[in-house]
Design brief:
The protein is built from 13 helices and twelve strands. It has 394 residues and is an alpha/beta fold.
C-alpha cells in the first residue's frame, strides 16, 4: 500500500515538467529537433519510455457525443468499430514492460467502460494489472458506467481515475455531451443522475487523491465564473483534483471557443485559486508548457493542460510529450500505433505482438517517435473532421 500511496502523491505532477529549480520547463528548449536531430538512439528511446504514457483505446464506442470530442485523433465514423481484443492488449503491455522502463499505462476510449471486459464484469484486464504494482495505471472515463461494482474492482490498483464531467449543471452538461440532440432529454437526465450518484459513491471510498474531475473549457458555454465556481466546489466537496483542459478546435472556424490561459487563470484567481511562482499566464507561440498546477482551497492539486496540435513549437516537441496512442483495428482483430493526432498515419503492431518479436516492437515504437520528430502536423488548423458532426452554437 505504501508504493500505491507514493504513486497517488506523485500523480498530480506526473505530466508536469519542471526544471531543477522547480520552474515550469519549456519543452522546446531541449527538444532534439531544435538541434537538427531527427533520429533516436536506443538510450534516447528508453528515456522516452521512462517518461511517456502508453495510452490504449479499449473501445471507440461511447454513450455520449461531446461537442468538443477529438475522438483521440480518429474520425467520428470509427465510433461504430469493434472493441480491442483484450488478450492482445495484455500481451502488448507485457512485451513493453519486459523490455522498457515504461511506468504509466492509460486505458481510454471512446468510453472504456463499455468494453465487454468491464461491461460484462469479466475484469481480465483489471486482474492483470495486479502483476505490476509499480506501474501507474490510469482509467479515463465519462463516469456514466463507473458504478459501484466496477469501482470496487479497480479502486485499489489504479493510480488515476480521470472523469470528464465539464459541468455540474445539467443544462450545460447536456449541451456539451449531446451533439445535435442525438439522445432524448429523458435519457440524458437519467445519465446525469447516474453520474452524480457514481461520483457520490466514489467520494466515500477515501481515494480522492486518485480522482481527477475534468472539464474542457469552452468560451460562452462553461467558462463563466459561476460554472467554474460550481465545478471547483464539487471537487472541494469530494476531495478530487480539478483539471481544466483547453478546447482543441476540430474545425478551422472553432478557434472562437478557445479560452486561453491568461483569461482562464484570471477568472480562477478571482475564485480563490492560487498558482505556483512563475506560472505562465500566456499561450506563448514560441514555447510549449503543456501542463501547470494550481491549488483551490483544500482540494488536491489541480491541473491545466494544453495540447496545441498544429502549432509549430508544439509539433517540434510532440515526440517528447504526447502519449503513445495504441488503437484497435476496425474489426477489433489487431492493434496499431497512431503517432500524430491530426494525421491518420498508422503503424500496425498486430503481427509483431502475435509473434512476440520484442526487437521489432521496439523498432516500431522508435519509428513512431521519429515520425513525430519530423513535425508532420505543423500548420494544420482544425482536424478535418466530417462536417456532419460539427458543433454549431445555438
Amino acid at each position: 500500500m505504501k508504493n500505491i500511496n507514493k504513486l497517488i502523491k506523485d500523480e498530480a505532477s506526473a505530466t508536469v515538467r519542471r526544471d531543477e529549480d522547480g520552474c515550469y520547463f519549456d519543452l522546446s528548449k531541449k527538444c532534439l529537433t531544435n538541434f537538427g536531430k531527427k533520429q533516436l538512439n536506443h538510450e534516447q528511446l528508453m528515456n522516452l519510455f521512462s517518461k511517456l504514457r502508453l495510452r490504449i483505446t479499449l473501445t471507440p464506442k461511447c454513450n455520449q457525443w461531446c461537442i468538443f470530442c477529438s475522438n483521440e485523433g480518429l474520425g467520428y465514423e470509427t465510433r461504430c468499430n469493434n472493441e480491442a481484443d483484450i488478450n492482445l492488449v495484455i500481451k502488448l503491455c507485457d512485451m513493453i514492460l519486459k523490455t522498457t522502463p515504461l511506468k504509466s499505462i492509460d486505458f481510454s476510449g471512446g468510453e472504456p467502460l463499455l468494453h465487454s471486459d468491464f461491461n460484462e464484469n469479466i475484469f481480465k484486464l483489471v486482474d492483470w494489472t495486479k502483476k505490476y504494482p509499480r506501474i501507474r495505471f490510469s482509467l479515463h472515463t465519462n463516469g456514466l458506467n463507473l458504478n459501484p461494482d466496477i469501482l470496487n474492482k479497480i479502486k485499489n490498483n489504479f493510480a488515476r481515475i480521470g472523469i470528464t464531467i465539464n459541468s455540474t449543471n445539467f443544462s450545460t452538461w447536456n449541451k456539451m455531451t449531446n451533439l445535435r440532440d442525438k439522445f432524448p432529454l429523458r435519457a440524458q437526465k437519467l445519465k446525469f443522475k447516474n453520474l452524480l450518484e457514481n461520483l457520490e459513491y466514489l467520494s466515500k471510498q477515501g481515494i480522492g487523491e486518485k480522482v481527477f474531475l475534468k472539464s474542457v473549457v469552452m468560451k460562452g458555454i462553461n467558462d463563466g465564473e459561476k460554472e467554474l465556481k460550481k465545478f471547483l466546489e464539487l471537487c472541494r466537496k469530494y476531495n478530487f483534483h480539478p483539471k481544466f483542459l483547453e478546447f482543441e478546435p476540430q474545425y478551422k472556424d472553432q478557434k472562437k471557443f478557445i479560452v486561453g490561459r491568461k483569461e482562464l487563470f484570471s477568472k480562477l484567481k478571482k475564485l480563490g485559486c492560487e498558482f505556483f511562482p512563475k506560472t505562465p499566464y500566456h499561450n506563448n507561440s514560441n514555447c510549449y508548457i503543456p501542463s501547470v498546477n494550481f491549488i483551490y482551497k483544500e482540494t488536491p492539486i489541480g491541473l491545466h493542460s494544453i495540447f496545441g496540435c498544429g502549432k509549430e513549437v508544439v509539433c517540434r516537441c510532440c515526440y517528447d510529450f504526447l502519449c503513445m496512442f495504441v488503437k484497435p483495428h476496425k474489426d477489433g482483430s489487431g492493434l496499431y500505433l497512431k503517432p500524430c493526432s491530426v494525421l491518420d498515419t498508422r503503424i500496425d503492431l498486430t503481427h509483431t505482438i502475435r509473434t512476440t518479436n520484442h526487437n521489432q516492437l521496439l523498432d516500431l515504437f522508435k519509428i513512431s517517435r521519429e515520425y513525430l520528430m519530423l513535425a508532420p502536423g505543423s500548420g494544420i488548423s482544425g482536424w478535418n473532421k466530417d462536417p456532419r458532426f460539427k458543433y454549431e452554437k445555438k
